[in-house]
């Protein structure tokens, strides 16, 4: 119903019939909002994330260095080919699958709707060289041992020394620190000490759309409070362990459900576990 739509909402039918004179448009400023993806809503209702032109371009530069880039620039007869199976209105699908591939001169093959048959057809007919996808898409490979070892070798060749289970190292021009939840001084923690992940860099959002309170809670002096718990090892690899909001307070201790679940799953009589 129209009464449930937020203000400034434009119907899609209006957009496709809209005519604009490009010459009359003022060029955007680098700090103007370019896109407004919505958060996943893990801590409440989804929030509009204001990402500027500077945010997007900075992020594309950060993931295009020799250390971070898994893609090869198009040259001669070579061109990376990838199926566009992730929604382009999600940040992963927009930044990685669409913008990043296009800056490399790659070919993106959007699927109108994902089905196993259409996905396999694209892989076979277009000889895709790289796939960006969610983890469940690769679960079936666990039944094909020779394939898994070959894929793992290829991944290591492209991604280098990334540790298994890690989200990798910090991107260029980015600062990350881990802090205790109750430490108002935000003093950085040391090696293998678990704390909340704070991030600062040119890719960090401008704020939450029409939500100054949420913006104030998330950003402090340029540092974005991710709400993730993590630790880092001697190689600077970051390991996400849990979400701050999921912590269970037991007396004066903060207990991470994921840690307890892992201990329970180690028991031979337990197949799976969930701590609430």
UniProtKB/TrEMBL annotation:
GO cellular component, one term: peroxisome
Pfam families in UniProt: AMP-binding
PROSITE patterns per UniProt: AMP_BINDING
GO molecular function per UniProt: long-chain fatty acid-CoA ligase activity
Gene3D superfamilies: 3.30.300.30, 3.40.50.980, N-terminal domain of ligase-like
GO terms of biological process kind: fatty-acyl-CoA biosynthetic process
Compartments where located: Peroxisome
Keywords from the named record: Peroxisome
Main location class: other
Signal peptide: none
Glycoprotein found in the keyword field: no
Full protein name: Uncharacterized protein
């Amino acid at each position: 119903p129209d009464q449930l739509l937020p203000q400034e909402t434009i119907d899609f039918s209006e957009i496709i019939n809209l005519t604009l004179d490009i010459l009359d448009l003022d060029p955007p400023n680098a700090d103007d909002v370019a896109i407004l993806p919505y958060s996943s809503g893990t801590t409440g209702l989804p929030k509009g994330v204001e990402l500027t032109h500077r945010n997007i371009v900075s992020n594309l530069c950060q993931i295009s260095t020799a250390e971070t880039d898994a893609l090869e620039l198009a040259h001669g007869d070579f061109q990376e080919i990838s199926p566009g199976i992730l929604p382009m209105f999600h940040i992963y699908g927009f930044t990685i699958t669409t913008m990043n591939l296009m800056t490399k001169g790659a070919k993106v093959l959007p699927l109108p709707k994902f089905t196993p048959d259409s996905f396999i057809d694209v892989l076979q007919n277009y000889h895709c060289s790289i796939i960006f996808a969610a983890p469940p898409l690769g679960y079936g490979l666990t039944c094909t041992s020779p394939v898994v070892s070959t894929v793992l070798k290829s991944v290591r060749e492209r991604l280098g020394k990334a540790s298994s289970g890690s989200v990798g190292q910090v991107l260029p021009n980015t600062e990350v620190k881990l802090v205790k939840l109750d430490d108002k001084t935000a003093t950085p923690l040391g090696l293998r000490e678990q704390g909340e992940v704070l991030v600062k860099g040119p890719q960090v959002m401008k704020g939450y759309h029409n939500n100054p309170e949420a913006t104030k809670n998330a950003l402090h002096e340029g540092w974005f409070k991710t709400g993730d718990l993590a630790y880092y090892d001697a190689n600077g690899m970051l390991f996400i362990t849990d979400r701050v909001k999921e912590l269970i307070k037991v007396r004066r201790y903060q207990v991470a459900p994921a840690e307890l679940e892992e201990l329970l799953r180690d028991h031979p009589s337990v197949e799976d576990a969930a701590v609430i």
